């Protein structure tokens, strides 16, 4: 019986081997008749032979090649295979060495496939959407990201060999799908990258900078040196960068900056990752309507936040120190350009010289070609801040358009700032006219070019005329300039109920602006509707956020102090990471919920106690008493005798007004009220407080 079983097994194996042998011979013959190069044909024949003999290297190459997956009709058109396994293959034989090469083949549909293609409405919509998303000049670069299939082939096979071989398969078996190949989408281990003279210049510059930093740090830390050479010390500069300046007025901006930056990063990450995901159709037809998708696609509001903050800081910083600053245009511009141009130059050098050394993966060389090689001709426009004027964006550092627009707005700032103190009404009227002109431009260009509003309406014209346009972004910047001007007035009084009402209106407006993305994506295109939104949405967002900042900075944001714990005041970076229950509320409130400390006695005393080594019981009692009578009461400064004497007025409603005379150039430190070495002014303060308590 055992002999019979062995005989039957042997016969069955031999019967299975016959068709395998036939397939092996047919495949080998097919490769030989496909007119490929000799090396490619030899390696492919060896691959087929060793694959049927179950050799490990051939199995790995077959395993690294992608296989069709389920869900093609739903849009699963990205088949990546195993990139790392493919490029790691290296088989040495007696006569040659076979290495793996990973190629992302671009999938296109033949015209004979029309009937089946009509049954794929999602794919048709996807093709239409992707064509509007791609910028002219880049559509040929990234069109392969629409439908890809990753295959692992011998390194000796050129693009011509692969085109010939796949074309032979298509014609032989009447396959309605065509595969095309590009050099940038074929990667193998240690594939060379072009190095030119500009790259060498970048390497030399970075080596020089590194040597200077190391030498300066060594001079500072180990030799304890001082002088000019110490200014390049990494230790000293990092210490200064991480140091928190006390009593900083606009600390409310820290949280807004960080969360807005995270919002921008999240939006770009979600969209870029979606392009290279397995199913792009899902992103375009389903995910875009989810709350996470709506929030990601609303990231352009965060960009308007930065424009508004830029105008606010330029206006507030200049007007606050205008008496000590020169009104020279050269000095005003030099301050900005001396900080910006070196940084921009370093960023460009990193992008075109160093980044290519760290790029890897199936699309690594495509990214080098798209994001780096095409930057060589455009670097002057990036460094000198005219990048947003370009019609064809042929470089991957497209995010530098923001720096270009922001710098161009900074160049306009002296027109308003140099004269707003002497002629406030005329300057504000000019700002209103400029604001209306910019809004009118956005409305008109939307009508003329039939432009959209959301990310999925993106096109080259949308980028040039709206998204990257300085005129389109100008209203947000002007709102920031006006807000910075209003912050010069410290004694602003707003009724509590009115303030709460305006804050609620601001929050609700921002929420509605975000949620309206859904209606704009779902509804049919209406040029009137999109024109209104392109003209008013960004200014509305900036206005709402500007009032929130104004409320916090003038001491009317204390209602939201729960969002910022007292322990976080010492570290600005940590305070910006506090998460509030609402995403929108968090972006507006985190960091700005606590009013500027220099406006409140209690906040100053809290900082003094936090920094004091061992406050006495008497000092703590005095702090508690001041908290009792002066909790969240703003301080007003009145100049009494030039720059040497100030009168500080505190008006707690429970005990009446208290006046304190402070000697010195800047009455921003009231912690001496409880310090061991009390000044004459502090003793007068306690005497007046004692008399007021006695008369109650």
Defining traits:
Double Stranded RNA Binding Domain, 3 domains, six-stranded mixed beta sheet, three-stranded antiparallel beta sheet, globular, O2_lipid_transport_reg, Acyl_transf_3_dom, Nose-resist-to-fluoxetine_N
Model description:
This protein has 696 residues and is α+β, with helices and mostly antiparallel strands. It has 3 domains: 34-188, no CATH class; 207-597, no CATH class; 615-695, 2-Layer Sandwich (Double Stranded RNA Binding Domain). It is built from 28 helices and 9 strands. Strands 1, 2, 3, 4, 5 and 6 form a 6-stranded mixed β-sheet that branches. It has a 3-stranded antiparallel β-sheet with strand order 7-8-9. The protein is globular. The N and C termini lie far apart (117 Å). Mean pLDDT is 70; it is low at 4-18, 113-117, 119-145, 558-571, 573-613 and 631-671.
- Tell me the number of strands: 9
> What number is the mean pLDDT?
70
Question: Regions with pLDDT < 50 over 5+ consecutive residues?
Answer: 4-18, 113-117, 119-145, 558-571, 573-613, 631-671
What is the oligomer described by this structure? single chain
Which class best fits the helix and strand makeup?
A: alpha+beta
Helix content: 55-70%
Count every helix, treating DSSP H or I runs of 4 or more residues as helices.
Answer: 28
Shape: globular
- Domain module count: 3
User: Radius of gyration from the CA trace?
Assistant: 34 Å
N/C terminus separation: 117 Å
What is the percentage of strand-forming residues? Answer: 5-15%
User: What summary fits the major beta sheet?
Assistant: 6 strands, mixed
Transmembrane segments: 200-222, 258-281, 301-319, 340-359, 400-420, 427-447, 462-487, 499-520, 540-562
Domain Nose resistant-to-fluoxetine protein N-terminal: 37-188
Organism: Zophobas morio
Keywords: Membrane, Signal, Transmembrane, Transmembrane helix
